[in-house]
# Entry
Amino acid sequence: MHIINYNQKYEKGVIDLWNKTMIADPITSHKFRKQALFDDNFDTELCYVAILNDSVVGFLLATKRKFPYLERGLEPARGWINVMFVDTDYRQKGIGTSLVEHAEEKLKSMGVETVTLAAYSPNYFFPGIDKDNYRDAIKFFDKLGYKAGEESYSMCKDLHGYQISEESLAKLSKAQEAGFSFLNFDYKYALELLDFLKNEFGGGWKRNALISMQNNTAEDCILLVLDPKQEIVGFCMRMIDGNPMRFGPIGVKEEVRNYGIGGILFDIMQLEMEKQGIYHLYFVSTDAPGRRFYERHGVKVFRTYVDYEKKI
# Structure
């Protein structure tokens, strides 16, 4: 067995092995290219293929930023192992360990001090390690000295027959009486919204809204909340990756959260999705407080991930 840097002649072998081993996350060549090869920071020096008898038996993609990402900049001391897998027929032979050691050695030579598993923004495949579907991966990285952190959750909801509850309608009326208004995005709010998102929630949220505006989907995919002064105090959107069912993010200015605006906004978005014949809602990642919020609205967890990092 030998480990070499990625070459596109191995693409079919890599994708076939991905679909054999990453059974909860099948992939197409289009998605692989879009999220891996065509990412600004992709580097063949950090992408490895394990070859045995002229066949692909393992793969690892790592990343170090070459280009700054919003307010995070280059994060010079941080690197990622985005994804790694080994053929089930060739495990327990040191292939996975060799792949990780190659990545760690190269990342360390580039100034990296902390390696994060999976959760690379903006083009992550996974927000962490799925602790139910990839239990062997949890054991593997534990042995290699990676430390578990917080959990995050993928959640979903069936919207067939969705109706806003009487309780939520009462909260909506109370908020409207207090001078709040809920409306679909209009481009006259474009610059105000971008400033609101950057100042309240960071550049990643601004980027999501900006892409929606650039693609001319914002009027269909973004909802706003205005306060009595007609200033933006809340926001939610969907379709950040082009999938109309994908919800998020959602956020409300802290000083107006006592009105339950976040819950009202979420309920309105669910109704708007149902009106358009979008009968399934999901998102990839939320934290524990977010999980509690969504569970109050009937959204269920379908995957649980664990953050992992290692100092090298």
Notes: The chain has a mean pLDDT of 96. The first helix runs from residue 11 to 21. The chain is about 35% helix and 30% strand. The longest strand covers residues 147-158.
